[in-house]
Structure formats: structure tokens, C-alpha cells
Amino acid sequence: MSQAACGGGASRAVRAYIAFGANLGDPAAAFDHTLTQLNALPATRLAGRSRLYRSAPVDAPGQPDYFNAVIAVDTGLAPLQLLHALQDLERAAGRTRTYRNAPRPLDLDLLLYGETVWQDGELTLPHPRMHQRAFVLRPLAELAPGLHLPGHGDLASLLPAVADQAAAPL
Questions:
Q1: Is 95 a catalytic site residue?
Q2: pLDDT tens digit sequence for 18-70
Q3: What is the pLDDT of residues 99-139, one digit of tens each?
Q4: Which of 10, 65, 125, 147 has its CB 3.0 to 4.6 Å from that of 155, i.e. a possible disulfide?
Q5: Please, how many CA atoms are within 13 Å of residue 117, restricted to the half-sphere of its CB?
Q6: With 90 as the cut, is the pLDDT of residue 151 above it?
């Protein structure tokens, strides 16, 4: 896919999956608010959501546990447009990137954008670590159990590798 294609408007709706995470404030309220905000984005409609899961922070001991979920949207926004919209929602919720793995009131990661495989300095699709994280794979399996992750295989085949990671539905 060309840079212009990734940054320009898409002509038809594409199913995208977004990881939600929060460990500051009221994560459950943040999740509900995020669903409303995503549904209000231009050319974007909420297509599904997982339950919330609770997990320990990765590479950040001493922080509060995270509340995680995966959200599906059908969007006419191009991948970079959607990424920028997600970053705007994070900023509006008070997220600051003071240091790597800092606690946050809202974290939104673009996991998948259809079957798009993309990598540049700003965006990598599929998300580069999603296949290694139970707090992403388990909620994603709720929404799309037969999903194929480009470059990684079927979702069901990835779940056993994260079976030892704690990520429990609420």
C-alpha cells in the first residue's frame, strides 16, 4: 500500500480492530465514553466490543492493573486518519506520553485494519506485539474467533502461546 493510500480517504468501509486500555481514573466509564466517541467519528460505526478484561501492566511493575478490551469499527477513514483520530481521543482524555509504559487514563492502539500490512515510522499493521499479548488476543477472540492475523496466522492458533498470561474478564 502506498503512503498516499494509507493517509488518504478510503472509498469503502473496512473492519478495523482497536485495543482499549486504561489504568487511571475510572476505566469502565472511559470505555463507555470511548465507544460513544468512536461511533461519532466521521465515516465510522461501532461494529462490536468485547467485555472488559483485567491484566497486570506489561513492563511496568508497581502500576495499577489495566482494564482492557477490543473494539471493532467499520470505517471509511484511511489507517493513518483513524490512528490520528485515536490519538486525539487519548489526548482529550488526558493522556500524556511522559515516559514509556506510563500509567494512562486511555490507551487506544490500532491493531488491524482489514488485511492491511503496513509499516512506516508512524504506524505498523498489524500491531507489532498484539500476537504476544493475552489482554489483546482474548478479547479479540470474543469478537472474531475465526480471525486471521496477517503474518501471524489464525487467532485460535495464537491463543495457546499466551495461556500463561493473566487477563481475566470482568
A1: yes
A2: 999 999 999 999 999 999 999 999 999 999 999 999 998 877 777 899 999 99
A3: 666 678 999 999 999 999 999 999 999 999 999 999 999 99
A4: 147
A5: 5
A6: yes
Q: How far is CA 140 from CA 4, 8, 65, in A?
A: 29, 27, 19
| Known catalytic membership, residue 51 | no
Euclidean distance between CA atoms 48 and 37, whole angstroms:
14
Sign of CA dihedral 58, 26, 79, 158: positive
Quick check: is 65 catalytic? no
Question: In sequence order, what DSSP letters do the residues of 57-112 get, joined into one string?
Answer: PTT-TTSPPEEEEEEEEEE-S-HHHHHHHHHHHHHHTT---SSTT---S-EEEEEE
Helix 27-39 to helix 79-92 angle (10° resolution) is: 140
Catalytic, 107? Answer yes
What are the grid coordinates assigned to 118, written together?
503496513
